[in-house]
């Protein structure tokens, strides 16, 4: 006699399951119990406290945003809404060498750490303190965290213009080890930024080796994404090879007027340098990037849109050219007057963006900046845009391939056991969406518009609107 079916917490009937493996879709019911997927298949007479009829729409694992700066945003449901509204159930924070911990400065943090907030927001003197805060908080999404190289340098060094001395390096290695023991997923670095650019390759290798001893990843914003991008990418592979760390190449791009088409060069480089080095990349589906105000970035861009300015907040949403004209000065002068601040830089070519996204080890990462006054639309639109433009309109991927890049692949890369798949025993992170209607609504003019076509989101079995079921992973 068959054992009786349990009474599920939630039973999702009549779903078209895209399970995150890249395999073909199939029709099934999915039963959720105690925060996990308990059963997948024809569940016939099964009973549940709540029943959701999917009506043939797609049920997939919750999306994993592999590249975020949500370190502080995750503590507030409204701040993390840009992600949860897209079907994101897990965010990877602490990218580009920028992490909220371990740091408790007495004065305003320097750029680019100020992308996360002011001195009053950096309140975690150890990574363990940050981890405890995440464990105790009512999170709307799951959080996996990296420890930032830039944060470690600001914590340890008064002068960042050169490599760390032996004592400073030992202190940073201890901080990496403390972070890994407290649950960090690895180390990130942003060698293009002033807080990191003084570091030599040996410094990065030493810190990455400390992370790798604990199974950690090395996520690298390479030293140069413009003319020197090939050499910078080779350095990243060298760091991974010498440290033994799994390499994640962050927000892959070739930027600047002279570099259009060089994505093909980098793809060849991946084949040359990647032999024997476990690695993956992430990218976002836009031709504009966004970071702190920087004259080097501005000089390589066809247009610069101000995203925030501390001394001139009303400039947000205006182009640098408009601000300069209004002030009767040059754009270079206007940029300096706007600091500290951030900007959106139009400096990539669509064909290069598409080549990176098509790479078979490419994950999707928004690189959204949640505290910008006028953010890049990628904050609210990345995952919906990826499905709309590159699946529905351009057929660059099948739906199954696209979902895998947003779910199963990042779960594998970051070691998120039991995530990224629709299988019995996995955590019940799920998104139900209409593939014919899913659409990003956020634009450069109106960046705060939620995506359409996302019907329901579950985080550890709890519907998004109920919230507060996220976990520190």
Description:
It is a single chain. By secondary structure, this protein is an alpha/beta fold. Helices cover 30% and strands 22% of the residues. The protein contains 15 helices and 20 strands. Strands 1, 2, 3, 4, 5, 18, 19 and 20 form an eight-stranded mixed beta sheet that branches. Strands 9-10-11-12-13-17 form a six-stranded parallel beta sheet. Strand 12, helix 8 and strand 13 form a beta-alpha-beta unit. Helix 10 packs across helix 11. The longest helix has 16 residues. The protein is globular and about 70 Å long. The mean pLDDT is 97.
Secondary-structure topology with pairs:
Elements: E1 7-17, E2 26-33, E3 36-41, E4 47-53, E5 58-61, E6 63-65, H1 77-84, E7 88-93, H2 127-136, E8 142-145, E9 147-148, H3 149-156, H4 166-181, E10 186-190, H5 194-197, H6 201-212, E11 217-221, H7 229-243, E12 246-249, H8 263-273, E13 279-283, E14 288-292, H9 295-299, E15 303-309, H10 320-327, H11 331-338, E16 341-346, H12 350-358, E17 362-364, H13 378-393, H14 399-406, H15 408-413, E18 430-433, E19 454-459, E20 462-463
Parallel strand pairs: 1-4, 1-5, 6-7, 7-8, 9-10, 10-11, 11-12, 12-13, 13-17
Antiparallel strand pairs: 1-2, 2-3, 5-18, 14-16, 15-16, 18-19, 19-20
């Amino acid at each position: 006699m068959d054992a009786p079916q349990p009474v599920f917490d939630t039973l999702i009937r009549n779903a078209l399951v895209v399970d995150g493996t890249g395999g073909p879709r199939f029709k099934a019911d999915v039963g959720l119990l105690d925060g996990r997927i308990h059963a997948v298949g024809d569940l016939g007479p099964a009973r549940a406290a709540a029943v959701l009829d999917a009506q043939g729409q797609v049920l997939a694992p919750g999306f994993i945003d592999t590249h975020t700066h949500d370190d502080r945003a995750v503590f507030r449901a409204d701040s993390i809404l840009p992600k949860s509204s897209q079907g994101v159930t897990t965010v990877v924070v602490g990218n580009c060498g920028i992490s909220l911990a371990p740091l408790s400065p007495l004065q305003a943090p320097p750029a680019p750490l100020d992308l996360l907030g002011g001195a009053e927001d950096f309140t975690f003197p150890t990574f363990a303190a940050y981890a405890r805060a995440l464990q105790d908080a009512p999170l709307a999404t799951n959080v996996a965290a990296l420890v930032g190289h830039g944060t470690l340098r600001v914590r340890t060094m008064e002068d960042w213009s050169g490599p760390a001395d032996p004592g400073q390096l030992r202190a940073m290695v201890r901080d990496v080890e403390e972070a890994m023991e407290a649950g960090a997923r690895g180390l990130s670095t942003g060698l293009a930024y002033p807080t990191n650019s003084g570091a030599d390759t040996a410094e990065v290798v030493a810190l990455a080796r400390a992370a790798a001893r604990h199974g950690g990843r090395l996520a690298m914003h390479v030293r140069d994404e413009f003319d020197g991008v090939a050499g910078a990418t080779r350095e990243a592979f060298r760091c991974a090879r010498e440290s033994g760390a799994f390499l994640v190449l962050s927000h892959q791009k070739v930027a600047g007027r002279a570099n259009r088409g060089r994505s093909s060069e980098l793809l060849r480089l991946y084949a040359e340098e990647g032999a024997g080095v476990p690695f993956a990349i992430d990218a976002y589906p836009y031709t504009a990037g966004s970071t702190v105000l920087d004259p080097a970035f501005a000089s390589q861009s066809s247009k610069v849109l101000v995203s925030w300015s501390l001394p001139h907040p009303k400039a947000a949403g205006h182009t640098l050219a408009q601000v300069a004209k209004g002030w009767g000065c040059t754009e270079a002068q206007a940029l300096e007057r706007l600091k500290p601040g951030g900007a959106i830089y139009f400096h990539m070519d669509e064909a290069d963006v598409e080549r990176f996204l098509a790479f078979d080890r490419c994950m999707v990462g928004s690189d959204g900046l949640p505290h910008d006054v006028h953010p890049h639309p990628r904050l609210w639109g990345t995952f919906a845009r990826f499905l709309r433009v590159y699946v529905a309109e351009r057929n660059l991927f099948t739906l199954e391939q696209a979902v895998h890049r947003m779910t199963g692949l990042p779960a594998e890369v970051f070691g998120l056991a039991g995530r990224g798949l629709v299988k019995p025993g996995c955590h019940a992170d799920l998104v139900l969406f209409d593939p014919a209607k899913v659409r990003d609504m956020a634009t450069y003019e109106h960046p705060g518009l939620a995506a359409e076509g996302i019907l329901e989101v579950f985080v550890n079995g709890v519907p998004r609107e109920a919230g507060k079921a996220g976990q520190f992973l």
